[in-house]
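Quick question, first post here. What does this chain look like in 3D?
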Amino acid sequence: MDNNNYVNKFEKKVSTLGMKEILSVVGLFVLCIIFYFTFFHVDKTPYGYEEISEDLAAYMASQDSYYYDDYTSGKMLVLYTAQSDPLYKYPKNFQDSLDVAIKNEELNELYNFSELTIVRNNLLFEGEKGERIIKMEKELRKVCRSFCVINPKKKALYFYFQPKERDAQYLQENLEKLEFWGAKLD
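> Answer (accepted):
Ran it through. Tokens below.
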């Protein structure tokens, strides 16, 4: 059996991976991870604080922003997903709690409530201005997720990734507790 030409040829062609091949595989793996986190990864942290970039803060304080009046009013701003938005996924009791909070006079002294804007692609016809609005609205949605409270003075926000049933009973209480973050209830 040792004289089998086929086996001898096969054994000669089989070799181990060299250093170049190993580095190539590792490099490809690292590139795949970077590509995934750059384009496909969605941060699903349920709650947290996030800083607003200087560019986004400047956009929200500009006349081009849909939130200009609310952002520059001196109050904190609550942004939430509109029911007509395809990304709307609030449980009914959370929406009910939000509706009650919006009508609460004490909270209205501290907060402006506004729906996240649904941006249409026809803004692209407005040239650079439209492209900037689309870019900034995408960035805002990325940091705000689907519900957030923005403190313009601190250029930061508190977000809910996706409000749950249990969040409904604490929504108003949580808005009142953000007192330490810039709001003051009498």
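The chain has nine helices and five strands.
The mean pLDDT is 82.
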